[in-house]
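Chapter review. Work through the record for Pentatricopeptide repeat (PPR) superfamily protein before attempting the end-of-chapter questions.
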Amino acid sequence: MGWLKDAAKVIELMTQNNLLPDVWTYNMLINGLCNEGRIEEAFRLQDEMETLKLLPDVVTYNTLINGCLEWKNSSNAFKLLEEMKEKGVLPNAVTHNIMVKWYCKEGKMDEASDAVPKMEESGFSPDCFTYNTLINGYCKTGNLGEAFKMMNEMGGKGLKMDNVTLNTVLHTLCGERKLDEAYELLTNARKRGYIIDEVSYGTLIVGYFKDENMDKAMKLWVEMKEREIIPSLVTYNSLIGGLCKSGKMGQAITMLNELLENGLVPDETTYNSIIHGYCREGNVEQAFQFHNKMVENSFKPDIFTCNILLNALCREGMLEKGLKLFNTWISKGKVIDVVTYNTMITALCKEGRLEDALDLVSEMEAKKLGPDHYTYNAILGALTEAGRIKEAEELMTKVVEMGKSSDEFIPLDKGQYMVTGESQENSDPDSIAYSEEINELCSAGKYKDAMRIFDELTQKGVAVNKSTYVTLMKGLVKRKRSISKGA
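Structure tokens for Pentatricopeptide repeat (PPR) superfamily protein:
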């Protein structure tokens, strides 16, 4: 910062001419240094003040304490608090708020709460900053009960939350699917004179879409516009994304046109939401038509666009077109990631083109993009299906030698391994339900059906229980052997 250098030169000239700078001047310089993270230099200025018989005041200490905490030097911050006591410099409301803010930032909510009585004992009442900071902290640690307690206490003292805090509470409520409470808070806040902004509405709109309640989301959208709250691109993207996921592609396109009419410029999120929406419907041709039209209008597809289109082509059985798109992206030097490779490897394995899939595994290894447990699941399944059990063993042995965590794969018979990437203890209800279904199908000898469900889950990123991998693997080996005997 140029002004900081200039200010330092002025102080130097003042000192040379026996014109001593005052505490305010030093405090201004110390604040500038702290903002830049130059804490040691700020401390040197404090020493210089004392040399000139200028006593650092509460503002000096507050600035240094805040600087130390912001730049991860909490030990010095606490030393400064002790120094204040020793030198008889009394903390003020700002000092207490700085500590409350730091405790909340660190997730130490008990200490933050304890700081409030200390503040009151010192003769200072918690202000809007104190309450807003505590409410934000409680929301971020998932303690909505305490957040609402603080809100009520705040309201009882005639204080108001700021918009950031209100939106944080709304976001937390929506995250916990407490949408009725979120809407009630929004309505009451408006009645109490709060300025409700587009972030408040946008948060609830996203919440209702996630809860698959499109009607309420659209009702809020209409209410927002009636109140002449101008939506930004972010809010339009939330709405377009929600409509696409709800299968309302016509309405999504209407929103895109409205966005353009309002002078906003769509971004990658806008376009990818619509492309993904068409692909989700199985309308790959329409997705590509939209993609091509948008490219003509200066849209630059990103890695997410590529992965959406590739996944749709492979899912709809258009592997050759998928390979063509994949190779085109590589030849153009476009960025691709592990998801891109896994999409192609899984599709090739399903088509029995194991050698081509293994070539891509080597390619992704050379680019240091993997493989990960999804890659190994696809390859292992293909090797087993092809009866190449020995190679499956060798592949897993190689994985062990490469130093992969033992939690990522599990022992089968005679040294075989299966990659899982997730422990049984962490399974969610969906994972448990699907695991049971796969186990039942294997018990009934319906291994192809079990494998089909397993493949669908792998694509969705849902893990199954470790025991299910064992059951499925054993079943596939058993099936292969029975087919071999029959031949």
